[in-house]
Amino acid sequence: MTQYEYDLFVIGAGSGGVRAARLAARAGAKVAIAEDAEVGGTCVIRGCVPKKLLVHGAEFAGHLRDAAGFGWTIEPPKFSWPTLRDNVQAEVHRLSGLYLKNLSAAGAELIAERARVIDPHGVQLASGRNVTAKRILVATGGHTYRPKDLKGQELAITSTDAFLLEQLPKSILIVGGGYIALEFATVFCGLGVETTIVYRGEKVLRGFDREVRAHVQMEMTAHGISILNNTNLAEISEAANGQRIVKLDNGQEMRVDQVLLAVGREPNTAGLGLEDVGVKLTPRGAVMVDQYSRSSVSSISAVGDVTDRLNLTPVAIREAVAFVETEFLGRPTAFDHADVASAVFCKPTVGVVGLTEAQAREKGRVRIYRTLFRPMRNILANNPQRTLMKLVVDAESDAVVGVHIAGAEAAELIQLAAVAVKAKLTKAQWDATCAVHPTVAEELVLMGEPVAHDNEAPA
Ligand code: FAD
Fold first, then answer.
1. 93, 337, 437, 453: which is the annotated catalytic residue?
2. How confident is the model over 166-188, as pLDDT tens digits?
3. Which atom belonging to ligand 1 lies closest to the Cα atom of 311?
4. pLDDT at position 456, please?
5. Whose CA is nearest to atom 45 of ligand 1?
6. Exposed, middle or buried, 310 (CB in 10 Å: 0-12/13-18/19+)?
7. Which of 401, 389, 388 is nearest to 357 (CA)?
8. pLDDT value at position 420?
9. Is the pLDDT assigned to residue 458 strictly greater than 80?
10. 437 assigned to active site
11. Residue to probe by mutation, ligand 1, list 48, 183, 289, most atoms within 8 Å of CB
12. Distance CA 144, CA 148 (A)
């Protein structure tokens, strides 16, 4: 039998790679994991974690404003970007250290080098050393897409650069209408930056329920973010004072301190050597995998963003867990990608799980329940922001197949709503659940009458 140096060689120490390495090592496998940047990957170093901390930082502006209605007088508040930035970075490095500690405690060997695949059981490290492994797991994640044909695109920053800005710009133009664009717009606007979104689509958050899209677009505009829809960037150039001159395809010209590109992400497969050893890639360059995360080469698997299935941290982790169950614990396990909840940390926060109204209507008859209200806290605060909640119900089975929330706490609420959707609980069971009063969440179990049936065209 062929002897390999390792049972498992993982490329990429992000959410998926670290989890797979730790679990496989704990199961007794000899594991190495290669990483050419800071351990922790996108989520910990330049994604979810620093982003959410900035969102918290920006939220204080709203809390301070709202406080007046509750009797508080607060001296003109002052904000320090370097303090927030440096505190966030300190936390990111602390977490990265914990990841390192956990890897080593599990017995996985970290190799701080770039790696590429050279044969179905072989990996070459940047130092030139070749290693062999019985199985190879590609967990290299993705990177921000930069449109190469956009003149002056090198003058723009990406989300990765935004975390490390020397100083807070006075004005910023954010290109894109997806969740990353909206979250950074919320952060910058909250911190007092004049914020404009330029988006080529009709409404922000393509792919989300149409009412959520309309509500978010309206509330973000009311919050002070200028959103230019059906508009593209034509060119960026630099003014003598260092500002960016932005030309839009509608002929408009703007001057801003920063331009942030948030127009999508691409899988990290370039230069990995995968196609040379027979691993098939999708047209977008992602590793093609089956339900067990196996590629077209039986000894090579892939998990997380590099497979471009559902690009979220908990999904990368669950795919990694299923991979270890399948390959090292003798229990073939396929992660179920249905009904995965997700959140957008914009203002209002969005939490969604399951089908949109349009998706449910394609499958059969539906009933729609909706409520739009101003939470109690906002009334005293004289804050006009309203919360939207929407339930999509399959009329045949009465199962709640979609929950869509846009309002404060939506991200927290959707986690529990996801349990009910995953368990296929019926609207009657939601109704039988007694409310917790006074809360925002109680509205979820108090939506009495449907606002639309299957025979009604969506408004
Ligand atoms: P990654 O975490 O990207 O890890 C891949 C690792 O591989 C990286 O560390 C990289 O340096 C390394 N690598 C790449 N190539 C090589 C090589 N050849 N050799 C060695 N190492 C290599 N998801 C959520 O669920 N919630 C959120 O709120 C959220 N917010 C986000 C905000 C932003 C701004 C971004 C960019 C992403 C966000 N995501 C969020 C997505 C989430 O971060 C990713 O889905 C997740 O990190 C994917 O994990 P992964 O293991 O597939 O890849």
1. 437
2. 999 999 999 999 999 999 999 99
3. 45
4. 55
5. 312
6. middle
7. 401
8. 98
9. no
10. yes
11. 48
12. 12
